[in-house]
Amino acid sequence: MFRIHLAAALLGAAGLLCGCASTKIAADSRGAGPDLSRGASFALTDGGEAARPAAQAVAVRLGALGLSPATAAAPPRYLVETGFSARPVAVGAFAAEIASDKGERPDWLIQPSKRWWMSPGAEVCALSVRISEAAGGAEVYRVKAATRAPRSGCGETAEPLAQAALARIPLTAVGAVSR
């Protein structure tokens, strides 16, 4: 009985030390957001095979916020670009674009960290969403969200990242509520 309790305690401690218990999602956004007062539809751009699950989760979230997918009868008012990446924790994820000034340090969503020797490995999973006007290409909203996941566990983070990335999208429609 003592061995079972000791083994459970050691496994729990190892899980906490390797950072696998962390499910925090950090997000950074810029822009006023799409205007829903004039009827808004969107079209997703193809971000490649890695971004497809995240793009589907973003489309569902945008639908819940009141945007509708474009049709032949209703061409898109907004283009939505999604990007999804998985990288080692030693790389991290920065909030904004890399500064052109080499002396300026980036704002980190997830700071790079060294892998602990006993850790099975972890990844940083990052989702970026850019919404722009289809007619002129003017950017109206950009967001990046990131979290840590166990190695090859980024596939399960697409939906939570989309929820966090678009949770506080600033909607400019009359009576619209940011969720």
Strand arrangement within the widest β-sheet reads 1-8-7-4-2-3
Low-pLDDT stretches are 1-22, 173-179
Instruction: Please indicate the count of domains.
Output: 1
Classify the secondary structure makeup into a structural class: alpha/beta
Count of extended strands: 8
Query: Topology as H/E string?
Result: HEEHEEEEEEH
Under the CATH scheme, the architecture is 2-Layer Sandwich
Largest sheet: 6 strands, mixed
Helix content: 10-25%
The level 1 CATH classification is Alpha Beta
For this structure, the CATH topology is: Double Stranded RNA Binding Domain
Shape type: elongated
Number of helices: 3
Mean pLDDT: 75
Distance between the termini: 49 Å
Determine Rg (CA atoms, Å): 19 Å
Would you kindly provide a written description of the structure presented here, covering whatever features stand out?
- There is one protein chain.
- This protein is of the alpha/beta class and 179 residues long.
- The protein has one domain: Double Stranded RNA Binding Domain.
- The chain has three helices and eight strands; from the N terminus they run αββαββββββα.
- The protein has helices at 2-17, 52-64, 158-165, and strands at residues 25-30, 41-44, 68-69, 78-88, 93-94, 108-110, 122-133, 139-150.
- The strands form two sheets. Strands 1-8-7-4-2-3 form a six-stranded mixed beta sheet, with helices on one face. Strands 5-6 form a two-stranded antiparallel ribbon.
- Helix 2 (52-64) links the parallel strand 2 and strand 3.
- The longest helix has 16 residues, at 2-17.
- It is elongated and about 50 Å long.
- The termini are far apart.
- The model is unreliable at 1-22 and 173-179 (pLDDT under 50).
